[in-house]
Amino acid sequence: MANPILAFPNRADAATITGGGWRAELPLANLQDRRLSHVARSSSASVNDTKFDVDLGAPRGIRIFALIGINITDVATYRLRGSRNAGFTDVVFDSGAAGTNVWPVVYSSDSLDWEDDNWWTGRYAAEEIAGYTWTLLHVLPVTTVARYWRLEVFDPTNAAGYVQAGRLFLAGQWQPDRGMAFGAQLALEDRTQIEQAEGGAEYFDVRPISRIFRFRLQALRRDDAHSRAFEIMRQAGTHRDVFLVIDPDDTTQRIRRSFLGRLRELSPLEYELPQHDSLGFEVKEVIG
Asked: Looking at the record's lineage, which domain of life comes first (predicted)?
């Protein structure tokens, strides 16, 4: 198990995003709007339209590339590239021309029944994708320095006739030098409101479910605790976006254990040892 990644700040917010074919009323600029409901939508499902370039304005170290709130189907693939120049002739990262599955394997064969449609693939069935804030997530093998990034989405049979997304997140990482203490918690928070009539019938005002992750880091090197953890808390506060990857090595559960979120509270650094500190984090998923 690898140590968790907390990615911040989001370099996409100050970037220039161009390319492809996107509807004038739902432009690529919406990917820089924190409201996931303000989507960017392509003009068609053709790959000529469902792609875009990101100019970060300067070379930046990137480990996390995430496109959040997608309608991309279970058969779609993508290609991600990073380059030192806008023409993509000096490529420093390429996920592969053959394309990477947007939806990775999330079930082992022994966790599904033989009769299940997705027994052979181990991926989510189409009906399981519906109604959730899903993410096209690429965790780069190492932090890669590049100014320009290009994403191409291959989903030509999308029944909607377009590809859309609500948020773009590109960032480096803080991966602490110590792993999580035992007792970390991944929870679901359901804000659905329930009213009960006098006769006993219950009525539900259904709200989206968000993920919450609580974890504690112990005996961090003091320099790591102050220059990284403390600075992320100071700059992000409880209002700015962060991206959490609980275990970057766990490819099967990664999509369930990674999400766009915010720090729910700013925990104090605890000076437990002469040169080592501890602190806790609670990250709440951003869903709206």
From this structure: Bacteria
> Which tens digit of pLDDT belongs to each residue from 119-142?
556 667 666 666 567 899 999 999
Largest CA distance in the chain: 70
Cβ contact 81:91 at 8 Å: yes
Q: How many CB atoms lie within 10 A of CB 21?
A: 14
- The two tokens of residue 210 are 């968000």
Encode 270-285: b = buried (16+ Cβ within 10 Å), e = exposed: eeeeeebbbbebbbbb
- How many angstroms separate the Cα of 46 from the Cα of each of 15, 156, 161? 24, 5, 9
CATH for 5-171 is 2.60.120.260
- The owner of tokens 């970390």 is 184
Residue of 22, 81, 77 whose CA lies nearest to 48: 22
- The domain spans of the chain are 5-171, 185-285
What pTM did the predictor assign? Answer: 0.91
pLDDT single digits (tens) 213-255: 999 999 999 999 999 999 999 999 999 999 999 999 988 888 8
